[in-house]
Specification:
Cytochrome Bc1 Complex, Chain D, domain 2, mainly alpha, elongated
Length: 104
């Protein structure tokens, strides 16, 4: 393996890592502005919101079992009392779904 080839691999890895970090930050920002008011900043809704809207905390086993794709579908299409989140691109929907899935 030549030095130039190794340098390109390292550069590609750094770019991919930086891109994934931005993806996570975008998901957090979107969650904070569009989702946290109902689901809580850490994924645990207030008692009143949980009762009135039927929102479960992210620690609930049924929420933990959801895939990122299932969460993204709910963000995009809504489910139950949850309305779709309007104005998000597909990459933003994926970012917020991945961020929500990362909450414990």
């Amino acid at each position: 393996m030549t030095k130039s080839f190794r340098s390109r691999i390292v550069l590609a890895a750094v770019i991919l890592l930086a891109g994934s970090m931005c993806f996570a930050e975008d998901g957090k920002a979107i969650y904070s502005s569009k989702c946290a008011m109902c689901h809580g900043p850490s994924g645990t809704p207030s008692a009143g919101m949980a009762k009135s809207m039927g929102i479960k905390p992210v620690s609930d086993p049924s929420i933990q079992a959801l895939t990122v794709a299932q969460i993204a579908s709910t963000v995009k299409n809504g489910k139950g009392k949850t309305k779709p989140v309007a104005g998000l691109t597909d990459p933003q929907v994926q970012a917020v779904a991945a961020y929500f899935k990362s909450l414990k």
